[in-house]
Amino acid sequence: MAARRSRLELVFDILLSIQNKGGKIKPTHLMYKSNLSHKLLNSYLEELIEKGLVNVEEEFVKKRDGPLKTVVITEKGLGFLAEFRRMREFTDAFGL
Amino acid sequence: MLQLHFTPEWFNGWDLVLDTIGLVIALLIAAFSWRIYNMHKENRYAYFALAFVCIAVGFGFKLLTNGIYYFEPIRDVAAGVLKPVAGPRLAFADLFYRAGFFLEMAPWLGGLLLLFFISQKPRERLHKYYELTQIGLFVYLILLISVVSNFTFFVFYLTSTVLLSLIVLNYYKNYLNNGNSNTLRVMWAFMLMLCAHVLFVFVFLWSGLYFFGEVLLLAGFLVLLLTYTRVVAFRGVKRVA
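^ Those are the sequences you sent over. The predicted structure of the assembly is below.
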């Protein structure tokens, strides 16, 4: 069984999912990609928006009742991803 | 006077240059680990940072004591400062150098012991009370060894050799588990330090061994620096969600 992901690893997985989709992703896709429940993803997204790591953009599309929401990674979010990768590499290298 | 190290005369002072490089590298690694601790709030990063700070402090005391020992102008200044306490002839020179050697050894051994603990235990290490009491016991033993080493200096290098051997073994196991080239580099870095400390044990036989030991120690720290720079420059994606 895989180990439980830490809070930071969950944030990393969310941001990585957005980056892997070219920096933009629909919330439903993000939920599946990051393997989180709707409730949990929303709570994490609120935190990430607050910290400026992601933005939510709304587009109005024809044939749709409400606006189409997309989650977009910010420069700060990309910086966090790079920092987290370095941290993971350091952890692996030094056996931490 | 107590002979701190069996340094070849021509090498006096140069060893301090090599040790300064080691000190800077140790502080760089400690600072990076501390940064991760601030981000992650996991104790293992704080302990790892502390281990390298201890090694840097050990280097610092060696630089201070040997600097005074090697360079006459500095020795005169130190003698002047200490004159009111020590008397006109710096009568307690032996005591001063013994204290300096103790302050070099204790943090070095403490740092190596922490590295051993960190490299050995599973992920949840150093969280539980009984592990902290174990560390307390080892700290006591290290202080004891440091005191004894003041009278028979090679006890220090013998102890550090044992600790480094265990650290190398742990990093080798770690490399077998993850196959990461940086882990292999870290293992080689500690292997070089181990070789250096083995030479230091036998330095009383031939002072030239001190030179080779210092060079190997520097090589070990340079390999750590190489690993550090590769980690800092790391941009690859290793695990995709």
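The first strand of chain A starts at residue 24 and ends at 25. Chain A has a mean pLDDT of 83.

Shout if you want it in another format.
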